[in-house]
Design brief:
It contains eleven helices and six strands. It has about 300 residues and is α+β, with helices and mostly antiparallel strands. Strands 2-1-5-4-3-6 form a six-stranded antiparallel beta sheet. The radius of gyration is 21 Å and the shape is globular. The model has no long low-confidence stretch (mean pLDDT about 90).
Length: about 300
């Protein structure tokens, strides 16, 4: 089983925040009843996905460790969740793929798309806390990888780009990625070769001045391009903590979510998180499995 100490070590390893600081967040969260507690050593409480989510909320939501309990209570209760698909910034094929993949991903959370024609937003029911737990779980069960599997991502290889730069008057470097692919000059990244943090990314941003959360799903195209975003915020009338305050925000990526999930599920030892190798290898296996699954389904459909 994974204890709070294991969870602290994993989060410290993936974020680079000192272990003592992470432990302070965990201690104050545990005192507030937001993280499981029992005894010490063999009697220590086994951590759950909810415990991991609460620890990440505390770290992301406040810079003051002793405010962990109140911060978790505030951010877990954020509502008004909505997912926006930015189809206008995508080509027709990518837009349809992004919409279909996004709706499929949210269906795992019990979300249904809007029936209104032309409405490319989806309401997320409930509070932010359970949705963050869902996101953490999605890094383990493969649904996050499946979300990106069908959304094209591409980049211009460095050697090709350098060649174009060296050629005076080369017109290719001024073309959009859609044009380069259409002309056969660039090939989209094979789904099985996708890498989180390079071709695709998920960023969970905690805004501290007016407590709110933004989750962006990004692909590499002409530049990093937001395919969809999910927001959670206070009820109407939510105000900043004071006028002219410095807006502070903290963010996590899918690697942090996977780190806590892998440790809780006893799939890796906490010390191995620091290199991120175990996480990257885990994601790679998920993309390979997703590609094989598509092949098997396609073969079955042709029978």
């Amino acid at each position: 089983m994974a204890t709070l100490s294991d969870l602290v070590e994993a989060v410290a390893g993936v974020t680079g925040v000192p272990r003592a600081t992470i432990f302070a967040y965990g201690r104050f969260a545990r005192q507030a009843g937001a993280i499981g507690q029992s005894g010490r050593g063999r009697n220590a409480a086994a951590m759950t996905v909810a415990d991991a989510a609460n620890l990440l909320i505390a770290i992301g939501g406040t810079g003051v460790t002793r405010e962990a309990g109140a911060t978790i209570e505030t951010f877990r209760a954020l509502r008004n969740g909505r997912c926006y698909f930015f189809l206008d910034s995508l080509d027709l094929g990518s837009g349809a793929a992004a919409l279909g993949a996004g709706i499929g991903f949210l269906a795992n959370y019990g979300v249904r798309p809007s029936d209104r024609a032309g409405d490319h937003s989806v309401k997320i029911p409930g509070d932010f806390g359970p949705f963050l737990e869902f996101l953490i779980g999605s890094t383990i069960d493969g649904t996050l990888a499946a979300l990106f599997h069908d959304i094209p991502a591409a980049e211009i290889p460095s050697d090709v780009w350098q060649k174009w730069l060296s050629e005076k008057g080369n017109r290719h470097r001024h073309k959009s990625m859609d044009q380069l692919i259409e002309e056969g000059l660039i090939t989209p990244c094979a789904p099985a070769d996708l890498q989180f943090g390079e071709h695709i990314n998920v960023e969970i941003r905690f805004n501290r001045l007016v407590p709110s959360v933004e989750i962006e799903f990004v692909r590499l195209w002409d530049s990093p391009q937001v395919v969809a975003a999910i927001t959670f915020g206070p009820d109407r009338g939510g105000k900043a903590l004071g006028q002219h305050r410095l807006q502070l925000a903290a963010s996590f990526t899918q690697h942090t979510l996977a780190a806590v999930a892998l440790v809780i599920k006893n799939m890796v030892r906490p010390p191995s998180i620091r290199s991120l190798k175990a996480i990257d290898e885990f994601f790679t296996r998920q993309f390979l499995e997703a590609s094989r699954s598509r092949v098997v389904k396609g073969t079955a459909g042709n029978d």
